[in-house]
Amino acid sequence: MAVFESLLQFSSTGTLLGALLLLLVLYLLSTGSKSQKEGKEPPGPKPLPLLGNLLTLDLTRPFDTFFELSKTYGNIFQVFLGPKKTVLLVGYKTVKEALVNHAEEFGDRDIGPSFRIMNDEHGIVFSNGENWKEMRRFALSNLRDFGMGKRGSEEKIIEEIQYLKGEFDKFEGKPFDTTQPVNYAVSNIISSIVYGSRFEYTDPQFTQMVDRANENVRVGGSIPMMLYNIFPWLGPFLKNKRIIVDNIVQSRQQMTKLINALQETLNPHERRGFVDSFLIQKQKDEFSSTGTLLGALLLLLVLYLLSTGSKTQKEGKEPPGPKPLPLLGNLLTLDLTRPFDAFFELSKTYGNIFQVFLGPKKTVLLVGYKTVKEALVNHAEEFGDRDIGPGFRIMNDEHGILFSNGENWKEMRRFALSNLRDFGMGKRGSEEKIIEEIQYLKGEFDKFEGKPFDTTQPVNYAVSNIISSIVYGSRFEYTDPQFTEMVDRANENVRVGGSISLWLYNIFPWLGPFLKNKRIIVDNIVQSRQQMTKLINALQETLNPHERRGFVDSFLIQKQKDEKDSYFHEENLMMSVTNLFVAGTDTTGTTLRWGLMLMAKYLHIQDRVQEEIDRVIGGRQPVVEDRKKLPYTDAVIHETQRLANIVPLSLPHVTSCDVTFNGYFIKKGTTVVPLLTSVLKDPSEWEKPNSFYPEHFLDEKGQFVKRDAFIPFSAGRRVCLGESLARMELFLFFTSLLQSYRFSTPPGVSGDDLDLKGVVGITLNPSPHKLCAIRYEQSLKGYRNQTCIFE
Ligand code: HEM
Questions:
Q1: Among residues of the chain, what percentage have pLDDT more than 90?
Q2: Which of 569, 536, 577, 540 is CA-nearest to residue 231?
Q3: Which superfamily is assigned to 398-645+681-783 in CATH?
Q4: How would you classify the pairing of strands 671-674 and 664-666?
Q5: Tens of pLDDT along 366-387?
Q6: Best mutation site among 587, 718, 734, 765 for ligand 1 pocket (most ligand atoms within 8 Å of CB)
Q7: Residue positions forming the annotated binding site for heme
Q8: How far is the CA of 719 from the centre of ligand 1 (A)?
Q9: CA of 396: how far to CAs of 400, 403, 412, 617, 749, in Å?
Q10: Does residue 244's CB lie within 6 angstroms of at least one atom of ligand 1?
């Protein structure tokens, strides 16, 4: 019944009672009609659909419950924890027979969602296969070296007992809770084997680590965590899951400090404990000491030179590419500070389809308009899956739209598209929202009174409010820290997500604990989820099925209707909202900022835009309909998107099956990068690929012309879901701002100082800069000569 009570916490009582009644009917029907497949599967109590045996199991003491059940079903029986079948082994003979005589078959660890958040399938307790074998063997042999089960640890234990007695003595015979002193003493034994020294019981670094570990062990066995294992979408609502995640984040920080300190004082000839042994082994194995690395590089170079002479490239089979080194692949020769430029450069040698090895990971590059279009559009199915590497996995966990695949992706994308359209995406509804938001943004610009300022935050907040009002049903104030922090964190994750350390993390995920950037991303996610949960809970509480305020409402209503439907669960809601929020903010904000910067850089082009707007629109608010009458402005916006090239690598795809493409064989599961840079700057498509040249989109009569190779939103199955919204936003924001302001560089900064290279993240941002936005009054002539206001 405890489960029943816990379930009540998560659902509205009415819906739950209805669902239970339905399940009861299903149960009664099924009891009469079907026979149990005894003799094949182990026997066990009859499960209800979806809930399995949860309603009849007392999960407060599951071990007693299972033991009790064995009296009815024997020594091997099965229960259903929700939809998850679990076989119980009961009694000495059965347990020994399975674990010892069938050691191989029963020897793997089941790593459910709650253990996964703690461990990520590394280490010893929650890993399997070769990783587990290697880690267990290494731990056993090293723990023995440091005295486990031998004289060495005997001495440590005897020493620690004296400290523990000291603690007990402090109570002078008065009553006390033995938990902390006993835990600290016991923990010091393993700590001195692992770290090489014991800790004082007054050292908060140590006591917090012990207390947190104990809390996680306790909370990890609680009913909410069992439910989380069964229904992981409950995660965002479970306080206990948050406690565990917070404890992990904090303990990892402290462990990292301890390990770093050991690393700094490491002496390979004097190992102090298990960590030292591991670090030394790591150095040996992974070339991290400079000497070894240089030696290894030399060896690799020799191997490389030898192999270049002897083996022939399998051209015509796999795509060509630079010769990879073992383990490191082509990493040493690739400039990951601007990977898209490095790949584009390589295509000059290897052609439009080539492969590189990022570490051991093969990645196929698609280069130029024809190849990218051929793959993404004509072979949409084969090239349409998303590659979800470790870096994206921490952000998304394969739910939502951006980083999911298969039926989950299809359902979420379809639902998002149709609902975003219902809330006005690409239509009149969002036009009104955008025009309203522009007034707020102008208010922000005006506050600077013509003095130089960084456009990042106001532009991002304004743009984010458009997708926010579609998703949540309302805009936020620019002074609301709840909102601004969410936007700032999303942008930080997009920036940090494209850093070299995240590339390395994608290639060698074991680097994770040492990477500050990974920690930044995880912390941002944890905090943003808490804020999103609050926002969604507030919407849930005031939900009216007859008046949907935004995408979240639609999702919640669908979730209520379709409780059985596995796709409309909490995790998909959180991830879809995150995807729309992040993808809908950073991209459009960044493009708009490029646009304003380019106007300040190329004043003669700004002149022409403003002349056209003055002539065609005058002082009234620009609307979408005006686009047709503003060919030059439209061309400038398109050219901004082309040259700014803000998603230069698109997002990684993966082949969904083996595919032979343009004569090359690409295996199922190969990472594929459609190099959008190479399309937007394809020299065979654009007259001046590297210049800002709005004429790319104009015919000789000055009329706007579409260009096939203009695909900043990518193409095919995964084409940007927000394209129509983004295009509308860019047009309205850009024309309205250019109508009202003259943009120029700050005093002392020339247009030439504004660089076009940008800052690399997942998206390509303008380099840090400030602009002056000087109000342009229609009545004033000669606005072109107005310059920045001096402070
Ligand atoms: C100038 C603005 C934008 C640009 C340049 C842009 C570009 C892109 C690109 C290149 C992709 C990856 C396509 C691929 O995998 O091949 C993408 C995906 C996506 N974009 Fe955008 N985007 C923009 C604005 C938006 C907006 C406003 C939204 C919000 C509604 C949005 C939502 C998404 C989503 C949900 C996906 C994932 C699609 C999927 O995996 O099925 N984007 N975008």
A1: 59
A2: 569
A3: Cytochrome P450 (1.10.630.10)
A4: unpaired
A5: 999 999 999 999 999 999 999 9
A6: 587
A7: 720
A8: 7
A9: 7, 6, 14, 44, 41
A10: no
